[in-house]
C-alpha cells in the first residue's frame, strides 16, 4: 500500500468516525428534546399529518408518543456508539435509525407545513428544512451499519 492509499484510507476512517459521532450526537441530543413540551409542540404538525402517527398520538397522547420517539432515538444512538465493543448491536442501531429516518422523510409528503404555500415551484418551509436533513442522516446510518457489520462479521 502506497502513501496515496494510506492517505485515502486515513480519510475514509476519519470520515466514517465523524459520521458515526455526528449521527450519535444528533440522535442523543434530539432524542433528549422529545421530553420537552416545546419539542412536542414543534413535532405536532408532522405527527398529526401522518396517518400512522396521528393514530398513535390519539391512542397514547402526543406527549407520550414524543417520549417514545425520544427513547427510541436515545436507544439507537447509544447502540451506534457501542461499535468498539459491540459491533453487531451497533449495526442494529444503525439499521433501526435508517428505518426511523426513512419514516421521518415520509413526513415531507404528509406534512402540508413542510412546503411554503403560494409558490409556483416547491420550496421548503422551516419544517421542510428540518426534515430534509434526514436524507444525510439516513445515509450516515447506512454507512455506519455497513461498517459495523463488516467489523461484527470479522469477530
Attribute tags:
single chain; 155 residues; mainly alpha; 7 helices; 81% helix; transmembrane helix; DUF417 family protein
Description:
The chain crosses the membrane at residues 65-85, 91-109. This is DUF417 family protein. Keywords: Membrane, Transmembrane, Transmembrane helix. The longest helix has 31 residues, at 3-33. The two termini are 24 Å apart. Helices cover 81% and strands 0% of the residues. It contains seven helices and no strands. It has one domain. It is mainly alpha-helical. The chain is globular and about 55 Å long. The relative contact order is 0.14. The model has no long low-confidence stretch (mean pLDDT 93).
Helix-strand layout with pairing:
Blueprint: H1 3-33, H2 37-49, H3 51-60, H4 62-81, H5 87-110, H6 126-132, H7 134-154
Helix pairs in contact: 1-4, 1-7, 2-3, 3-4, 4-5, 5-7
